[in-house]
Amino acid sequence: MSATRIVVLSAGISEPSSTRLLADRLTRTVIDDLASRGVETDVSVVELRDHAHDIMNAMLTGFPPKGLAEVMERVAAADALIAVTPIFSTSYSGLFKSFIDVLDREAIEGTPVLLGATAGTPRHSLAIDYAIRPLFTYLHAEPVSTGVFAAADDWGQGADSVAPLQKRVDRAARELADAVAGRTAVERVDPFSPESYLGEGGSFESLLEGLGR
């Protein structure tokens, strides 16, 4: 069984970036959760800042440069996404939205997505649900129920004792792992195997036992 491909999109502008810090924490927790279920992962982290000029060129010309095209292919082939953006003017950043705009409309259809966002204050915590989630729903992706927002107070010594960021991270990571593990289990079922139409045991006897219940 091939490893589960997870692509992490971080739209942080500064370096170091709290957006990348949140993306890394989410990623580690998802990897650990999946590992506990026996699911191997192949993780690719994309700093959208590194592709900003190519994203703009793709918007202007309609043709992504080679480096950006490779990123877009990875995103389209991913089994799951972790997408984290800073909040500017009460919504996702322009860089984040621009990358989504140059993706093929069907690139992430049906893909489980864990959404994250960062900002200076908790006042923007609802941005995930009123701005970011509708964007991914429009693209027919499958965002997990819990989005993770981190404000400045969520970082630093003793922050988790005041605002339990890790609890939110754990819950969201578990939901993404559930979605990934569920898809993996479905893929493991061979539709032409005896078990798929004869029931557990793969014999006509087991089928007859089921009909007789």
From TrEMBL:
Keywords: Flavoprotein, FMN, Oxidoreductase
GO terms assigned for molecular function: oxidoreductase activity
Keyword check for Oxidoreductase: yes
Annotated protein name in UniProt: Flavoprotein
Gene3D superfamilies associated with the record: 3.40.50.360
Sequence ranges assigned to domain NADPH-dependent FMN reductase-like in this UniProt record: 4-155
UniProt xrefs under SUPFAM superfamilies: Flavoproteins
Keyword hit for Nucleotide-binding: no
